Amino acid sequence: MSNTALKFRPQLFEEFIGQDHIVESLKNTIKNNSISHAYLFSGPRGVGKTSTARVFSKAINCENGPTVNPCNKCRNCVEITKGISPDVIEIDAASNRGIDQIRDIRSNAQFLPSYSRYKVYIIDEVHMLTDAAFNALLKTLEEPPSHVVFILATTEPHKVKLTIRSRCQHFRFRPLSIKDIKDHLSNVCEKLGIKHDDASLEIIAKLSDGSVRDSLSLLDLVSIYSNFNINEKILKDIVGFIPDDLINDFINGIVEKDFKKIYFLIEKLYNTGIDVGFFIEELINAFRYILLSKNNIQLSDKYVHFISYFENYQLQKIIDILFSLLKEIKSMDKNRFLVENTFLYLMNYRTFVDLENVLNRIEKLEKRLGIELKGETVIQLIDTKELETNKEVDRKVTKDININNIGEKLEKSEKLDVETLWKKLKQKIAEKSPKWIAIIDDVKDIKYNDKGKELLLIFSNPYEEGFFKKEGELNKQIIDFFNKFEFNIKKIKISVEKKIKEKDDINIVELIKKEFNGKEV
Ligand SMILES: [Zn+2]
Asked: Are residues 164 and 30 both part of a single domain?
């Protein structure tokens, strides 16, 4: 830990930043004398978990306590601050993962504290313990001696067994905001007499990723190099802050599809020791500005000149890709290849697919070809023809039936869809003339197209359609029948449904390629 970080390690509850909810609860347990035997402190690194554990240990062990304001002067307080108290034992589970260490704790915990009120075990990174060690710890937590307090700290609470978690009072530490850290740094600079400008502190806060500890280490480094006069220029020289022109160059490389350029920019990025994660974040910000500007929200005019090179969906996709890259490089050592590969992919942003557009075009294609893509088989309508609807055509079949009378008898009050009406029509016809129904039954499906004002009768059997073709009077009556129920049909079409296998009669791939002017890639 850096000198400044050590110096500003909180020694009192009041000195913690950004964790008010936790500090208040802990103070209450002390005030109400309701100290628990096991606590779990979880949260990102550098937000004050172990510091809180130490201050809490002092609060319950201070000779003038238990108190929410430990004196920091008595023997107990001083030893805890120095980390040499025999009764406050800190264990780093990352390096002491085994069952033996936990067994030691178990046997030692039985003995009374040397001269404090409580024996406190602070186990840092507790999720790193082995299974056997976890089980041994669990046994201790099940029957803790009354003088023992466990404080388990972890950055990954989900990796701590539920049986352990359920025995602890769980406090979730928040990641600190850039503003929290910036305010804290400003405070520290005041106290140490370090000259600074606002922009520099903002950069340090951003670079430390929510960790006070990291921000103080960086402040330490920069203030020494800058002879206690921090400014943005010196800071950029030291930490390799991302200049806007580097971001510009990268976006240009993507737009120009110039991998050689990007390759050398990545080289520059790694050679100058710029934090790659921070760079990617800044690049995401730049693309966000472009996306917002493109949609008339202008937060900055820095990257406005790029808006004409990208569509909305391309920008969204680029941002998505960069976010995944950011997530991955944080958990990888050798991430340069991943970065190169990602930029190689981003360069081809013009081939990114606009899914909404594709779906619309497929729908259009289906409509135009009269086909529906259904699983493995393709249904295609063939021989679509408009029917005659005049009375002069042969009327030998319909002469003794008047469909309109059937229509009159149905209840008009209900709003009926085309299928229901067709069913009712068939039912009535069947009652009057069973001969007819054999033919009408061949109509497998019926559709009403409001745009074309047409009724489409779809046959499964191509041979019976001839009947409808000849029956001008019947067809006219069908139209009249439907129009009595708020339809507005002008013509009837018939079509025959044909099931074909994808590979046989129709080549879907060819059709799609034609629709999208496409070629295989
Ligand atoms: Zn004290």
From this structure: yes
